[in-house]
Specification:
2 domains, five-stranded antiparallel sheet, 22% strand
Amino acid sequence: MTQNEIEDFEKFETLKYGKENDLWIEDFYALGNFGLVGGHEHTLVLNTTNKTVYKSNNLINSRYLVSNVIEKVQIHNKLFPETKYKIIGFTGIDNGESQTPHIEVVLKQTYIPNLIKAEPFEINLFMENISFRQTTPESYVNDNYLVFDLFPRNVLKDNKGNLYVVDAEFRDIKKLKEEEEENNKETDRNNKISSLGEALNSVKISDLNIPMYLTKEHKKNSENIMSYTNSIDYSKIDWNKEIERQKINAIDN
């Protein structure tokens, strides 16, 4: 299978899986009551009743593969469980049997108010403290994962200095090496069907049970964030001001 054939295959299979498993979302915007500023990858809506931001991922940063988005979420949740994502379904446009559908993956994440952008040096120190080394100003790597796109808009902080990685890009080092070795080989359709099915089925699995922290600093930051989040009185949040803050946080300056 060529790359384009794999993309089309995953989109058709995801459409089918979403509709058969009650995971197809017809109206993404109905999930929230406020629109937020997103990037080129995500469309965002905020639901102030359940304190949740919903993100519709258009696959552009994941080589247009649904399986890569699912893998990204799994790695995010391992490394940053305090800002974990949950995939709640899929949305897009069903173009019929003869034309590839437009597919987006819908995620949800607890919205944490009163945060501001972290400074680059704070992000660098944080990532080094959790066992990563810097390779570019916004990219870090350890033996298992490459983490990048760590711009200040994607790493926020509270008034106590705790850092929140709310969005990032990830690559599994082992998988990257395997893909390099397979570049000149024909992709086996049966293997692709099996791996996509496994990825889609994982969407139904519940949240992480026990976080796996890399260092003591990693664990401390995560626990501080969870404690802070649990202490928030959302009834006192001025959501109009909070939305203005989010707009500022979402834009690089």
